[in-house]
Amino acid sequence: MDGGTLDSSPNENHGIPTGVSAYTDRNGIESGALWFDGSNDYITVPFSESIDIQAEFSSAVWVYLQGGGCNPRVYEIHEYLNCGGYTLAFNEAPGDLPRTFHTSNFGGCQSSLVAHSGGSASVQPGEWHHVALTFTPGPTSSGKLYVDGILVNEAFLSQDISGINYYGAPLYIGNIAPDRCDWYGGGMDELGFWEKTLSPEEIWSVYVGAPLNPGCTDPTACNFDAEATSDDGSCIPSGCMESDACNYNALAECEGEACDYSCCPGPGCCLEGTVWDAELGGCIPIEAILP
User: Which of 36, 71, 288, 290 has the smallest CB count inside 10 Å?
Assistant: First the structure.
């Protein structure tokens, strides 16, 4: 949302703005975000196959709450009679009181799951905050709510929430529809949707604005990657691989620790094929003691 409503993804889900204006983003960049006046500003995104998300779902957005209508909607696309789809909205609150979540849901009319259900998460108005949602359908569906990169609530439903009939409805940003009181008020930036369940590491990466770079993050491993931001389980354990050393590590797969021979001479310092001879005070070939 660099002051406009063009989709930066290859899907080209460009928004049609009504009343929105450019606004300074959280980094102080002029025209880096969008401003909604809380009374009649919204964006319409025409329905397309790429916003017809049926299974796994994730969204993320930066919000600067200020004013707004009855239940300020960040975004909403819904099924018939407004009983399903995906939605993110806050409760109305006067002044500088924290805003709790009114809606953070995904699913069909008969199987919608609310991610903040049972939680007391809130967002402070007049400040930039990052809000992310993930939903994973299945026999037991789950939904997660993240604020500023941190998981603040998780909800479950013993029902599959996939299979939503959007009937070609548009995605609205800043309200449910132009004739509702649910106007969003304040700044908004970097709104994104994914047809997958983002991992906690990916949510954090989106929050900090750094690309996710999987790799080995253990500095003691042979294949440590100093540029990796998410451990992918590929670490190869290192250590001393010399069996006659004091700190021999049978689990090591590569040399990564200097072998220590300070305990030698002694039984642990004999090379393969030799044994310690206490009388001689040294190692002798096994053949020498065989009958």
Answer: 290
Burial of 258 (0-12, 13-18, 19+ CB in 10 A): exposed
Rounded CA separation 80/165 (Å): 8
Question: How far is the C-alpha of 273 from the C-alpha of 287, rounded, in Å?
Answer: 8
Take residue 81 and report the two structure tokens written for it.
């009679």
Per-residue tokens: 68: 């707004």
CB-side exposure of 166: number of CA atoms within 13 Å? 22
Residue 132, pLDDT above cutoff 90: yes
120 pLDDT tier (thresholds 50, 70, 90) = confident
Integer CA distances (angstroms), 271 to 160, 238, 241, 262, in order: 61, 21, 12, 15
The neighbour count for residue 280, using CB atoms within 10 Å, is 9
pLDDT value of position 88: 97
Place of tokens 């929050």: 207
* Cα 165 from chain centroid (whole Å): 26
Looking at residue 248, the DSSP 8-state letter turns out to be B
The residues with which 71 forms a beta bridge, in sequence order, are none
**Beta-sheet pairing, 33-37 with 111-114:** unpaired
3 has pLDDT over 80: no
- Residues 289, 260: Cα–Cα separation, whole Å: 28
Q: What rounded mean pLDDT belongs to the chain?
A: 89
Supply the pTM of this predicted model. Answer: 0.74
What would the two tokens of residue 133 be? 């949602």
**For residue 70, what is the DSSP state?**
S
Hey, CA dihedral for 276, 281, 283, 286, is it positive or negative?
Answer: negative
- Helix, strand, or coil (residue 207): helix
Rounded distance, CA 76 to CA 53, Å?
A: 13
